[in-house]
Amino acid sequence: MKNSKVIHLTSISRALRELGLPRPNHPLIALVDYKDIDIKAEDAEKSFVFDFYKISFKKNFAGKIRYGQGYYDFEEGGLSFTAPNQIISRTQDEADYSGYTLLFHPDFIRNYPLANHINSYGFFSYSVSEALYLSNKEKKIIFSLFDAMIVELDTNIDTFSQDVMISHIELLLNYSNRFYNRQFITRKALNHDMLSQMEAFLSSILNDGSALLKGIPTVQHLADHLMVSPRYLTDMLKSLTGQTAQQHIHSHLIEKAKTILSSTDLSISEVAYKLGFEHPQSFNKFFKQKTNNSPVEFRRLFN
Description:
About 50% of the residues lie in helices and about 15% in strands. The chain is of the alpha+beta class. The chain folds into 2 domains: about 180 residues, Jelly Rolls (Sandwich), CATH 2.60.120; about 110 residues, Arc Repressor Mutant, subunit A (Orthogonal Bundle), CATH 1.10.10.60.
């Protein structure tokens, strides 16, 4: 019988204990080699919520991984990123891998600029299937950073230790940003296919009456349909078109509104409800912001 219990880990020391590892040299940061992890069979189905960040490089994924609407082989492994308070399933995240996992608590970066902008690294909100897959050259760079971290963590703590480790973390995150941008480019054909699917889905929502019943389409709604995370969808679209997912939704709403206003005699309230707005006033404000004309003014100018 599977153990579906979710275990909340508030400290890195306890996390390492769960993995069968000794206490870390520093209570707020640790770098783990997967080959040292001892997972008991009875614990294989446990899930965890960490109170800290987790960056993992896994050399081997078992089988194929879903990516958007299809399945792809990722035999070379890659980087995955997890922010605090996300649920991690060990069967997905820990089994049958070799590589490294970096764990660091938000308190470790609390008094540094990194604490204020770490949320700008969108990949902490990506799902496991949206991991960063590295070329051999990129792997060498990442491994060199992990090696430097290992050396630093094995050194006696002094007044410079935290500064050095945070510099390593920032460098790792900045390289990851660069490599993700490369990944969006190298998968342009796949991303164009996803863009086409999203455009078709948005059009169907606004044309078949779904918006009237369910409200304005959301980024989460689109991401669920495409089977990707909302942040990944937004970052992918921005790299491809320069627009976020929210901006794409707004563009479709405006174009549909213009079509209805110019080709029908529906009242402004009826147009608003048809597009999923709860209140005509919200639609008026939205339309005015996007076009510099109210719906009434647009209809008059068009006519």
